[in-house]
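To whoever is covering the structure queue this week,

Two jobs came back overnight. Logging them here so there's a record in the thread.

Job A:
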Amino acid sequence: MPRSLTAKIGPSILNADLSQLSEESQRLLDSGADYLHLDVMDGHFVPNLTFGHPLVKCLRSKIKDAFFETHMMVSNPKQWIEPMADAGVNQYTFHVEPVQNVPLICRKVREAGMKVGIALKPGTAANFITEYIDQVDMVLIMTVEPGFGGQKFMESMMSKVSWLRDNYPDLDIEVDGGVGPTTINACAKAGANMIVSGTAIINSNDPAKVINDMKCTVNNALENNICNY
């Protein structure tokens, strides 16, 4: 396992109080979050509807330096590349399932000045991305069906994480869906180093402890042994 990888915890702000989004986001960052995971849903690719680039731009005006990852659960990810880049997004993670030309989207995202993330639904095989893995910065393995928070963690998805880690040891691998203190061990053992967690962090009385504990678990699995208790 490469020592260059370290754990990064990105709370999903979808579970926060959206009426006080900047304050909630800053609270998460002050609690030790490494980045913010922004779930964008269009009501087509997934049945739910959340927020778009105007809200992200407003959030960026309040939070200047944090790393923003947008998880684009949308049918036409190409449509939102430029608006999200203008809104101040750092990484644009899109689903491969509705896209006919994945390399084109990857190129457009990079040309817009953002990092490239690709996301796989539970039913999409990990080796689907083999032909364009060299064009991405990160792969997101969904551990629930995308669209709604609070779903049960699918441990069977860890085989995809393990396959990616075995074949691409330096790759940033993110997991999203039902991840918290009771499921972080499975994610860490499989080789994930980027952890999205919503309700487990947001609803905790001590989000800093939850973030730190999960980060330690992942770093120990990565053999970095970076823990601050």
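Job B:
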Amino acid sequence: MANPSDRTLVIIPTFNEKENLPLIIGRVRAAEPERVDILVVDDNSPDGTGDLADEMAADDGHIRVLHRESKGGLCGAYIAGFRQGLEDGYDVICEMDADGSHAPEQLHLLLDQVDAGADLVIGARYVKGGKTVNWPWYRWALSKGGNLYISLALGAGLSDMTAGYRAYRRELIEKFNLDELSNAGYIFQVDLAWRAVQAGADIREVPITFTERVIGESKLSGSFVKDSLLVVTKWGLAHRWNQLKGLTAKLRK
């Protein structure tokens, strides 16, 4: 009997990742040589990443490339990848960074849980067994504390809602209105997880080792923390207000 993961697409967004791309693709192909295809979504990288991706795709039928005309952000790249993956009939669609921070060797942990019935599997840093490598203590504390606040504000019960290493069943993605996704910093990852919670999805977290990039510079803006937490606070207040209204309506009956 076939498993959902037998038809898996891994989306790898790129912008100036020419040095990292062969490394991450090589690791994915070695870790999952049969059941996983790769879609590189390149935002017109001036360093030639897109051209390199085309060359690799020409030599390997498991690799495809989607070129975007300009740098449109990580959220836009993933949405484009989701749409392509759905159109091409994949049963599982994954998110993975190009810089090596997400270990392809741990991808099976996510896919195994999808095969076991999960709708969304998050590779989490803050569950038992999860860890970060080469992060200064203050960055770990900021990320850990931010995720704790997000989970409490929304009542989501998840430890790592900002994590970007994920596997989705196509049926869950089809429930999302991709045009509505927030693009305030990296908040779209929280947005997707929160939509999955509200949809009653089976969400599971598996421990992964997150390793800070060695080659290139992080594209994460420092303003994302303030912007993201502000948006989450608004969502949380709206959620609690709706809960209160629902409880009040029940008491009046």
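Note for Job B: Residues 9 and 88 are 10 Å apart (CA to CA).

Please reply-all if you pick these up so we don't duplicate work.
Q.
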